[in-house]
Specification:
single chain; 282 residues; alpha/beta; Protocatechuate 4,5-dioxygenase, Chain B; eight-stranded mixed sheet; two-stranded antiparallel ribbon; 10 helices; 10 strands; 34% helix; globular
Length: 282
Amino acid sequence: MAKIIAGVATSHIPNIGVALDTGKAGDPQWKPVFEGYDYSKKWIADKKPDVVILVYNDHASAFSLELIPTFAIGCANEFQPAQTVWGPRPVPVVKGHPELAWHIAQSTILDEFDMTVVNRMDVDHGLTVPLSLMFGQPDDWPCKVIPLAVNVVQFPPPTGNRCYSLGKAIRKAVETFDEDLKVMIWGTGGMSHQLQGARAGLINAEFDKQFLDKLSADPEALARLSHVDYVREAGSEGIELIMWLIMRGALDTEAHEIYRFHYGVPVSNTALGHMILENPRS
């Protein structure tokens, strides 16, 4: 049977992709950011996942205000890099795993989650930046990827508790898939940031650290936070952190933290956070 062996949480800041794609990763501004992922690249090269379920939010590339699914799973064979203000990122086409994706869709829908099935979808920096941070700049991504898009752009987004529960349903789905696969689940976005209004540029390093602590040791406490809690403490775009709870819900309660990187210095108006959690017996 398939099993989830680990979870990864990471920011998906678009300018990280720009820095990589334009050869600026070694510049003084960017070097500390990328060095924070050196351990992670070695770790994942050793683990060699077959599939990554990558939880992210679309930034008006695949969806718009005309169509706003709360949860949407990509079930296609492949996903093209999306057009952005800089053009599509020069990264490999993302190869999907339709069989597992359809199985997750069926299982979660029957568990009463309203999952939207997407058979054609371009993927933007929300998905490709985490892949670049963990895998570098290969000619092809070394594993299959199942995109799971979450609405954190238009009110009302799902609650943290709903996301945490969805993670549990995803784990159930994966463990009933009849193929021997090593699966990882990644939660992306965040940390604290606000891009507009009177609090534009907000960074709350204390909240970010507390969030990382609880993500590791007490995720149920995070699941109880309201939308107002996130917006007050982490800024309007800090609501992206609920996507990390999908990842955490899919892991064992006793999953152990093996690596953490928190860069509180603003990176393109946002703090950056990263954590790796492994399931026991992974």
